[in-house]
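step 4 of 6: structure.
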Amino acid sequence: MKALAARRHHRAAPVVLMLLALLLTGGVYAVLAPSPATADTASTANDVEEGDRLFQANCATCHGPNAEGTSQAPSLVGVGAASVDFQVSTGRMPMQANGPQAPQKPPQMTEEQTAQLAAYVASLGAGPAIPTDEQVDGAEGDASNGALLFRTNCAMCHNAVGAGGALSEGKWAPPLYEVSERNIYQAMLTGPQSMPVFNDANITPDEKRDIIAYLLEQRDGSAGGLTLGSLGPVSEGVWAWVVGLGLMIGAAVWIGAKSS
Amino acid sequence: MSTDTTASNSGAPTTPAGKAADYLDQRTSVGGAVKEFARKVFPDHWSFMLGEIALFSFVVLLLTGVFLTMFFDPSMALEEYHGAGPETMQGQLMSVAFASTLDLSFEVRGGLLMRQIHHWAALIFMAAIVVHMMRVFFTGAFRKPREINWLVGTVLLILGLAAGFSGYSLPDDVLSGNGLRITDGVIKSIPVIGSYMSYFVFGGEFPGDQIIPRLFTVHILLVPALILALIGVHLFLMVLHKHTQYPGGGRTDKNVVGYPLFPVYIAKMGGNFFIVFGILALMGATMSINNVWNYGPYDPSPVGAGAQPDWYMLFLEGSLRLMPGAGMEWVIFGYTLSLNVLIPAVVIPTLLFLFLFAYPFVEAKVTGDKREHHVLDRPRNVPVRTGLGVGFLTAFIILALAGSNDLIATHFGMSINQITWAFRILFFVGPVLAFLITKRICLGLQRKDRELVLHGHETGRIVRFANGEYIEVHRPLDEQERWLRVNYTAHKPLEIEPATDARGVKRKGYQKDKRWQRLSRFFYEDRVEPVTPAELAAAHSHGEHDEIAAERKSPEVTTGAESVERER
Amino acid sequence: MSENQNPTPGRDVTTTSGAQDPERFTDPGVPAHKLRLTDTDPAARRRNERLVVLLFAISCLGAIGSIVAYFAVRPDGTTEGVRLSTIALGVTMAISLLGIGIAAIHWSKSLMSDHEHVDERHELASSPEVREVAVQHLTDGVEDSGIARRGVLKGAAVSALALFPLTFAVPLISSVGGDWNISKFRHTLWERGTRLAYDPTGRPIRAADLTVGSAAHVIPEVPQEYMESHEWITEKAKAVVLLVRLNPEDLRSDQSPEGETWSYDGIVAYSKICTHVGCPVALYEQQTHHLLCPCHQSTFDMADGAKVVFGPANRPLPQLPITVDDEGYLIAQDDFAEPVGPSFWERLK
């Protein structure tokens, strides 16, 4: 303490103090700021009511106070819990900025808040429920059948192995390597944003699990070595020019150079 | 140095090698050939090895291709797959061609390696051909007497495209199947005979059950045989003409300066073969390519994002993507003419190849030059040719990029529609701009050369004169440096005979001559003449102080400050 | 051997006078040869020799390693196993190849002579005497055959030569195109009453099962065994359809003529084969109702008669007229009204 006292007239003291104050304020804010939500999450008594409150605070501006939709955003009546869970747990909603599509970002809500929001939206109208762990367990699926279904229904946007691809006007189909099994299932079920709906009549729950099995299979990489992004012939061409021909021309320069 | 291995010894041979050579020579007169070729001189430069890279990739293609044919079965019969291939393929209905591709990748040890080397070698083969052609074009190596060899090379480029395309389609997967489907669409757009051509190619309606065996024959017999034959012609002409050489001291159109074939060039060429093969092996070992089990067996319904051909066909893909469709399908007397397909897929490539085929003859005509050329041009000394070449490449690259517009969109976060519009405009503007900029840069470099020859190198040494003026000392070029920069011809536009003869009668063919002259002006109106000794002497007469200064003599001014070259 | 014959200055330029031509510089000749370290220092020479030996030795090890890898690393059918085997075989192969290549080049660069040689070139054209003899030979030959005089013989020979390729071409061309019946382009498997089924499972589609925003890839319902034939693949190549369900109020128009209804309660079915060059158009964007082709980015508006809104296609995708049967399954009213896929010369005939 003595040392500290001795230095309180140091030239840098105000700066250090200010930094400390800022740090303290930030810390306190971080603890207190979400208090309206977190303070009450301990009580899970009424998820729908909590979800309503979260909805009014975070979603109502665009989706309307009763989730009936506005000119900026669609109605959420009848989209179901699966849709909310997908959008919120992948960070797509709440949306931060207007753009061609809502990008994936770090989730803005805790799992508990997500569940409350989902419960609230599900209470507005019947819609697809969040799938169970068993439904999304790729180990139970048939990867070969999944390959067949993925090829016909998904590969045109998400690429043959789920590396993602372009849509029109700046939109895109995201890569699927990092997407959780539950989210993959929910996306098929609910058709978020540009994606069409693949309900259980079109792709049955078992078939959805097969597709998950196929996608999990892709995470082992390629038997041929580096995948080079699995983007197809264009990336292969770039690598052929840069690495292959680059090395060969490098060798040719060495061959043609006079030895010293 | 082992010059004693030549077989043409007159004395009786004593060594085993000598005896063998004697045996052979008595039956083949090989001695003459060895005498002729063993010490044939080849100029050395890294850019002369680009064609070698193409040649050696082709040899690798033949070697690995033989391996693959042992295990590949080009049949379109359908089977339910239960083999060593990946989990995701088990039980699926597929053609035997696709199944045997899986088996040769997963069951045959080293099979996947060979397949990947083969495919990488194909990409490198085409890339090496392109850079080799660029070298030949920009250095003017296509000029007399090599015009025919340029044509042979361009035909080889087209055959390379055919070889690549037919091989790419063999595994009968979804990606290449959609490529074939696009080909079918293009064929159908051809007026009058298009529908029948489609039947001709596919043996009936697309896809039928004929196309894979047909492509197999094309890929392993027809095209490689033609390529081999033309490579033979290409190399024969190369040896006959003797290789070109870069300009420099002692290098003229009447000699060739370099290293002897045996042993130096044999070692370098042989070594280069192993290096090319080694790099391809390394690529095949570590970088996956065309994993057909990801795309799945051909089925006419699915398609994958990133549906593109291998890079050398991307220009066609891009051309198809850029063409707007609105108003481009004409109906004439009830017959349909799809210009939205014909223009990008038939007319544009025809124009591109026509440029390649015709250029040497057009340039010879507008230059009015009938001499043999064996010393290469420095690209800057022929600004319009260099500009045209860069413009051509720009068009090619823009088309290839347009063929990748979906990947550009996802990787740079842009709108695919905007990219397409940008490329539509760039396809017309880009080559013109590239031409103008390149021509300007070439002329600038030529002026820089003149400047350097006349005034020498900047030394960074500043000297102050008695009258207080500062100058930077310039060091004159040595004679090799100077010769490189002054030893070229700046061609002038053609001069033609007047429109009327002496008696005022109109001359036949004047209009034609006039058109050629106009083209010639386009080529040679802007030019920078090389420095002549007289000019150099004039520059020195007032610049000799530089030399005096460079020799650290007294910087005394005798003829006035204005005679000193100032730093600019 | 013509080792390092540097042309004397002035030898190759046009001027022969000793004095400098004011218009052209003189060729300074081949630059002087510079000695390398290995030319002057025996130790460096030995060092480089050892290096080359070492490189060849590494190559030998690579080749042996490749054999070892072949027997030791057996692929077990898994992705991992095949990858390991490929890398082991390929890397050892590359070592054996690159070892030879680098060794040979280092050998030539550091140990073989680097004196530049000069060869003379000779003009390619034959000398006038040779040409004269050649022309004489040809003239003699023509004269001997009498082809210039014997017109009928010439005509007969030319006719025979022109006709004989037909013996080869006619059998080939008549068979190579199958039955040459190009009217097949106009018809698909769809006919009145054919049920719409999901691709690839073949389950028939009930209208009530489709949620708004759904996209289904559709094939005509056919027997399972037919789906394992080549004929099916060729038919499927024309018959595939993309079905979407929109909010009925979002559906601005479709292609049905006056007095007919080709769509059913917001459900529309269009050919999946692009009218540009035939790629399967399959990227359906649910919000904009746009259908994008991944091959060349033609974009069609599914809510507005599949009209082209962007890209190289010119015509809308042909619509499959649909309705439902008694059991609520979607069925086709008829085949497509026009040929599907890319345009061809006789399309409107």
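step 5 of 6: annotate
 - The CA atoms of residues 238 and 275 of chain C lie 12 Å apart.
 - Residues 1-29 of chain C form one domain.
step 6 of 6: archive
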